[in-house]
């Protein structure tokens, strides 16, 4: 190996490589001289430094101080105040932008597509605002979604997202809430240590089993061995609720009074009061206990409706501990009606081995639509009958009305006798009514079925409502046939005046609403939330395929409440009043019987030939009324729970 290397070195010696040349710049013959600085005399005269005026320096300092203060305020608000002020500024900016958009662009001459584009972009702005702000804004978004059927179609499509589960608060934030609420009882302990003192150590599940706009629910176990649902208010609600409602009042006034000239801002204080009451869990516990007492006092409801027990000794204003109930949502139709095998098999596909279902336990909520599952073996009719019964009793008898009966707040479980029992949850949003109001409301409902237009008009006028027929239609959630022809002709589509532009229809809707409420002081505020209850119950009925005649049930409860209230008051009536009452009772029974016949005829057609059910047909008629009378276009599937 050494010889070849020596050979290569010899060749390099005989033939050296050519020398490389490098370019070092142009050649010069100038002799190198060191650098000599120029003399001072050759330099120009020095210029004086530019001096800022005293006013400019003062303004710059102000700008610097302001920027620093705003930056500090923003960081404090973000990290110590849950961005409360930033959220309100975002609300004011968004609402101002929406107001300007409508003022500048919602004008005569615009075609339907241009007006639809205005509605679409502003619906997106409201949607983004509510999602970004969260908290009570989620609740406001749900309220908009519940009434989306009377809003532009683009709004109907977007606002169904508010019924999805909201983000959960972290475990660290849950610990902070526990420490704030129970720190006086257990000084010096962390939130996790307090949880281990209140409940069986290690039983408090750190991940919530459900999360809503105001609170989230964790499962735990008391030292007595009872499983409980621990409802914990999200920590930012306490800081944000006051500011949020204040901004809500201002925004409502801006749009209802200044923008559209609608007499609706008078309802805002009552709505804010009810929303604020939802954040007080002492109030919710009281509502739950009161409802349980009312149910126990009514023989027709006892055993069919259940309210979980609240453990007040371990509950506070922001933490509520209640009995844990295993049940199925009233919207889970496949699970409710599937064949019953045992409790652990509920929700599992048919023919699942018992060993698997016993190991996994019941599935209360289906992730994908599989109609062939084991369930509770219940009839939709029995479930929905109980659902309508309890809320009718609350409206007409108790005067203690649950105003948020959406499917997430109604669980169904199977009793040993094979009958359903409804479990009512979330008792934060209630309205209380006076005996006088309950009597008038029951009389109004019964008069709708006896076509007693004088009584209908008298009650509507006493409540400050100008158009009794439209109010009757809004109450029934179907066109009222017993009054003048204003509503009845709309059912057939014969409305004089010819077609109107989209802008004219919107203007007409504004005028009709202004005419509808003629006396703000006389209108009962409770009607807002009672109407919400009726609407949600209607949706629940439609979700289960409209198995019951909801209007018939309501009418019978109204008649029963009137009879009971007069008997309790010991009222004596003259023979003329008794004859009139007898005749109205006969007429009432005839109308209810005809309504029931129409319901069953619709059910038979639906089963034999398919198509729409009873509730869908009423919706179709109400769409025509809304379109022709108010210029409101209702499109698409209005069942927001299954959208």
Automatic annotation (TrEMBL):
SUPFAM superfamilies from the UniProt entry: Protein kinase-like (PK-like)
ABC1 atypical kinase-like domain span: 164-458
InterPro entries, alphabetized: ABC1_dom, ADCK1_dom, Kinase-like_dom_sf, Mito_struct-func_regulator
A Pfam family matched in the record: ABC1
Transmembrane parts of this sequence: 63-82
Record key words, sorted: Membrane, Transmembrane, Transmembrane helix
Family recorded in the similarity comment: Belongs to the protein kinase superfamily. ADCK protein kinase family.
Protein name (database record): ABC1 domain protein
Organism annotation: Sphaerosporella brunnea
